[in-house]
Amino acid sequence: MPSAKTVIYQESVKQVWLVYRILGTIDFDKLLADIERADALGPIVDPTTWRDNHKAMDVDKRALGAAAKFIGTMKKIEEEAPQRSTT
Length: 87
Prior knowledge:
The chain is built from 3 helices and no strands. The chain is mainly α. It has one domain. The mean pLDDT is about 95.
């Protein structure tokens, strides 16, 4: 029987791969492009709404960018060691 630490490790790794699979269904490039477009046009089209939401959109942009980097890294890992993605 595996130790408690081993079980925690194995379950944690499985969860990381699960998050990768879930996030892999999202088109981050499109979402980030949409934010860029809104950020460029917002001050012209609707300055009040843009001003009220600009900081939140910046936080969203940073979070989506981080998730996109995670996906990119995990894809490289999966290519190098495809057997690990099925654990």
